[in-house]
Amino acid sequence: MAVPGKAEGEAAACRTPLIFPGSSMSSRRLFLLLSLACLAGQVTALIEGLYCGQDVCYDVLGVNREATKAEIARAYRQLAKKYHPDRYRTNEERETAHNKFLLVATAYETLKDEETRRDYDYMLDHPEEYYRHYYHYYSRRLAPKVDVRIVILVTVCVISIFQFYSWRSSYNEAIKYLSTVPKYRIQATEIAKQQGLLNRGKEKGKNRKSKEEMREEDEEIIRDIIKNKIDIKGGYQKPQIYDILLFQIVLFPYYLFNYITWYVHWVYRFNIKGEEYGEEEKLFLIRRNMKMSQSQFDSLEEEKKKLFLEEELWKREAYEVYKKEQEEEMKKKMASDPRWKRYRRWMKNEGPGRLTFVDD
Asked: In sequence order, what are the residues at sequence separation of 6 or more whose Cβ sits closer than 8 angstroms to the Cβ of residue 111?
C-alpha cells in the first residue's frame, strides 16, 4: 500500500523506468540498488505497533492527507456503522468486522487530534527517524490525562482545608480547656452577669427548658466571652484564613518583596547609618538568638520579654552568658529534685540495658 506524501513520491519514483541510451551493466545495478532503497523507505515508513501499524490511517478512512476534521469524522461514522460487529451474525464475520472496527477507530483517534496527526504526518515523511516516532507515540499515550497543574491545585486546596479545620479544632479545644480553669471561668462569669446574659428568668409553658439545656447555654455563653476577651497565641491561636497553605503560596511574592524591602531598610539604618535599635528591633534579635518562631515568642508573657530586654539579650555575648546560666540552673534543679534523683537511681540500677533475674 502506498504511503501519502514523501513516501508516495518515492514510490512513484521507484515505479518510473529509467532508460539510458547505451546504459552499461553498472548503471543497471545502480538503478536496482536505488529501487531497493525506495522500497525499504516504503516499508519503514509504517511501523508495526505505532498508530495503524502497516496500514495508512488515511487509507483506512478513505480520505487524503488534506482532509478536514469534518471529512475525517464523516468517514469514521460511515465506516463505524458499516463494520460494527453487531451487524454480522456468524462468528467469523463478526471477528473480521471487530478487527476492522478497531482499526477504523484507531485511525480516527490518530487523525482527529491536531498534535497526533502532525506527529503521524511527520512519521510518513521521515520514516528513517525510528526513535523519534517511538518516543512521541508512547510519551503521548503514557502522558497523564489530567493536567498536572489541576492536580497540584486540588492537592493544595485539600491540604489547606484540612489545615484550617485542624487548626480550628485545636483552638476550640483550647477554649474548652480555658473555660474549666477557675481564674478564667470566674472572670467570664462575672462579665456575663454584668451583661445580663446569665440573669434569665424561668420560662414557662412550651418555651420551658430543662436544666441540662440551660446549663449547656450557660457554658456556651462563658466560652464565647473567653473567645472574645482572651488573646490566645502560639499553636492554639485563633485560625486565620490568610495563614493556610493556599493563601501563603498566593501571597508568597508579596511576602518576599516585603522581606527584601525590610532587609535593605535594616542594613541601611543599622549597618550603614549606625542607628540604635528600638524595642521592636531588640525583641526581633532576641527571638532570633533564641531560635524561636514568631508564634512561640508571642506566647511568652510580657514580664518575661521585659526581663529579656533588661538582660540585653539582643547582644550575642549577653545571650551566651544568659544561656549558660540557665543551663547551670537547670542542672542544679535537676540535681535537687527528688523525682530526678529517683529517675537517675532507676537508670543506674534497673534501667534499660541491665539484665536481671527476679525471683517470683
From this structure: 57, 58, 61, 67, 72, 117, 120
Q: What does the angle CA 35 – CA 38 – CA 44 come to, to the nearest 5 degrees?
A: 140
Cβ(122)–Cβ(4) under 8 Å?
Answer: no
Contact 103, 52 (CB under 8 A): yes
Count Cβ atoms below 10 Å from residue 79 Cβ, excluding itself: 20
Return d(Cα 252, Cα 258) in angstroms, integer: 10
Q: Of 89, 91, 3, 94, which Cα lies nearest the Cα of 44? A: 3
Tens digits of residue pLDDT in 233-265:
555 667 788 888 899 999 999 999 999 999 999
Q: What is the DSSP string of 132-199?
A: HHHHHHHHHHHS-SS-HHHHHHHHHHHHHHHHHHHHHHHHHHHHHHHTTSHHHHHHHHHHHHHTTSS-
* Contact status, residue 46 vs residue 130, Cβ threshold 8 Å: no
> Which are the contacts of 174, defined by CB distance < 8 A and separation ≥ 6?
232, 236
Rounded Cα gap, residues 288 and 113, in angstroms = 58
CB 46 within 8 A of CB 137: no
Task: Please write the tens of the pLDDT for every residue from 271-286.
Answer: 899 899 999 999 999 9
Give the Cα separation of 39 and 279 in Å (integer): 87
- Domains of the chain in start order, with CATH, are 6-142 (1.10.287.110), 149-199+209-241 (no CATH), 275-349 (no CATH)
Alpha-carbon distance of 348 to 245, in angstroms, equals 48
Residue type, 107: A
At residue 34, the pLDDT reads 45
Length of the chain measured in residues: 360
| Overall pTM surpassing 0.90 (yes/no) | no
- Whether 38 and 11 have beta carbons less than 8 Å apart is answered as yes
CB-based contacts of 232: which residues, under 8 Å, 6+ apart? 171, 174, 175, 178, 238
By the 10 Å C-beta count (0-12 exposed, 13-18 middle, 19+ buried), 108 is classed as buried
